[in-house]
């Protein structure tokens, strides 16, 4: 897979999210091709699909998505509750996100920029302190593995090829 350039991610293309969703789906299904037929029932895949679809709509409609989204809340919230994943549509996440144990919960803030291939084991929070809102840097690189119940609080900038252990607090 190609590496994501953070400068290029500022120019997200709405329909590129569908390509990213395809790559997320392939990464989650792994080497067993038969798994692709039933993996769509996986709670993590549903959470990722919701993020990708909402991100696409946000990129298409801009700030109007916040208003238009109100019509879809009766459909979105039960799916978010089922998936146990709350990934903000404002977050910029490259292709290859994988959530292994979504029943433990996953929360990703809208202030973060994440590169390719992040693996979340479950119980993870990637969020920011209030100072992140004032345009501070909150970036995670490519090829990051986040252990169970690990928390990443920004503003922070992490490089590529990082393993964050279980129960870690990174700030």
Question: Could you please describe the fold and organization of this structure?
Answer:
The protein is an alpha/beta fold and 171 residues long. The protein has 5 helices and 13 strands. The strands form 3 sheets. A 5-stranded parallel beta sheet has the order 1-4-7-10-13. Helix 2 packs antiparallel against helix 3 (43-61) and helix 3 (43-61) packs antiparallel against helix 5 (73-83). The two termini are 29 Å apart.
Which SSEs are present, and which pair or pack?
Blueprint: H1 6-9, H2 16-29, H3 43-61, H4 64-68, H5 73-83, E1 85-87, E2 92-93, E3 98-99, E4 106-108, E5 113-114, E6 118-120, E7 124-128, E8 138-140, E9 144-146, E10 151-154, E11 156-158, E12 162-164, E13 169-170
Parallel strand pairs: 1-4, 2-5, 3-6, 4-7, 5-8, 6-9, 7-10, 8-11, 9-12, 10-13
Helix pairs in contact: 2-3, 3-5
Key descriptive features of the protein:
5 helices, alpha/beta, 171 residues
Mean of residue pLDDT values: 88
Overall structural class, as computed from helix and strand content, comes to alpha/beta
Number of strands: 13
- Rg value: 15 Å
Q: Which percent range fits the helix content?
A: 25-40%
What order do the SSEs take from the amino end to the carboxyl end, as H and E?
A: HHHHHEEEEEEEEEEEEE
Shape: globular
Strand content: 15-25%
Ranges with pLDDT <50 over ≥5 residues?
none
Strand order of the largest sheet: 1-4-7-10-13
Distance between the termini: 29 Å
Number of helical elements = 5
**Main beta sheet: strand number and arrangement?**
5 strands, parallel
């Amino acid at each position: 897979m190609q590496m994501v350039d953070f400068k290029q991610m500022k120019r997200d293309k709405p329909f590129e999210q569908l390509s990213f969703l395809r790559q997320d789906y392939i990464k989650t299904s792994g080497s067993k091709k038969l798994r692709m037929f039933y993996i769509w029932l996986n709670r993590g895949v549903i959470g990722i699909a919701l993020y990708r679809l909402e991100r696409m709509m946000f990129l298409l409609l801009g700030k109007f998505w916040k208003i238009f989204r109100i019509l879809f809340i009766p459909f979105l919230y039960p799916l978010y509750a089922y998936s146990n994943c709350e990934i903000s549509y404002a977050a910029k996440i490259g292709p290859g996100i994988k959530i292994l144990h979504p029943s433990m919960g996953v929360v990703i803030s809208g202030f973060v920029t994440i590169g390719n291939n992040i693996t979340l084991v479950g119980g993870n929070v990637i969020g920011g302190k209030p100072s992140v809102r004032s345009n501070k840097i909150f970036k995670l690189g490519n090829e990051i593995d986040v252990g169970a119940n690990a928390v990443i609080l920004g503003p922070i900038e992490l490089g590529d090829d990082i393993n964050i252990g279980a129960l870690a607090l990174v700030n």
